[in-house]
Amino acid sequence: MAKIDKVFSNPLGEIPPFTFNEKVAHVFDDMAERSIPFYREVQKMITDLSLTFFQEGSKIYDLGCSTATTSALVYQGLIDRGVTDFTIKGIDNSEAMCEEARIKLDSLGASKDHVSISLGDFLQEEIHDASVVIMNYTLQFTDPLKREAIIKKIYNGLRHNGILLVSDKLLQTNTDISRTFIDKYYNMKRLNGYSELEISQKREALENVLIPYTLEEETALFTQCGFKGVDAFFSWYNFTSFICIKK
Ligand SMILES: Nc1ncnc2c1ncn2[C@@H]1O[C@H](C[S@+](CC[C@H]([NH3+])C(=O)[O-])CC(=O)[O-])[C@@H](O)[C@H]1O
Ligand SMILES: O=C(O)C(=O)Cc1ccccc1
After folding, report:
1. Distance (Å, rounded) from C-alpha 83 to C-alpha 54?
2. pLDDT tens readout for residues 166-194
3. Domains in the chain: how many in total?
4. Contacts of residue 17, Cβ cutoff 8 Å, sequence gap at least 6
5. Is 140 in the pocket of ligand 2 (CB under 6 A)?
6. Transmembrane residues, as ranges (predicted)?
7. Residue 203, annotated ligand binder?
8. Is 176 helix (H, G, I), strand (E, B) or coil?
9. According to the annotation, is 66 in a ligand binding site?
10. Is 15 among the domain residues?
């Protein structure tokens, strides 16, 4: 049964900073589908690209895996292709998310050898022998001062021809364009059933928690850390998904 996101539906008075707590984890799939543009399509593209670049015997990391939507799709894709020699590692620092992730993977009958979920900070985790690293809407929640260190660590942990896939909300440099894109985004939320109160309370909760980079800053980060091929594979107003190849 789909659980409907009502996290910001009642007046909260003082609005605490957004966290991925139990209340959020419980309704996360609905929240993501209604608040992230083309969420399902991006998941499909991430899965497709992961299957294309996966190397036999290597690891796939899903950093900030939330409820393991991506890990589950990639797992199923590999199994359907008859691949057996792979390890998917989902990492999230929210205990409630990890619980939801394990429930989803158990329902697929996925073995722990093939896909495991670890409770932890991906800034502290080792990345080793990877062909694919996924950061789907998670870099934006990382302290900007720590972004270079995590991208460098990912680069070092990837095999030759391995890829990093990143989706993020971006900030447009031009203020007119920025305002327009943000308006379009809030319109999308309205069309998806969110009220003005839900939209404004979540916006306040996300301030200083979700810190968007510009397209230039985000691209420069990937190239400065060593990635040779860096390109966008999906874009919708202020949301963009990137593929970065280690050559
Ligand atoms: N340092 C960190 N270490 C571990 N986890 C973290 C950290 N920082 C944030 N998280 C986790 O990153 C996730 C971000 S949601 C990802 C969606 C998913 N990728 C999806 O494709 O459905 C994005 C969104 O909600 O917009 C949350 O579960 C956090 O707990
Ligand atoms: O940027 C926003 O307004 C969002 O709602 C993005 C988002 C989506 C899902 C969980 C947390 C933030």
Report:
1. 10
2. 999 999 999 999 999 999 999 999 999 99
3. 1
4. 205, 207, 208, 209
5. no
6. none
7. yes
8. helix
9. yes
10. no
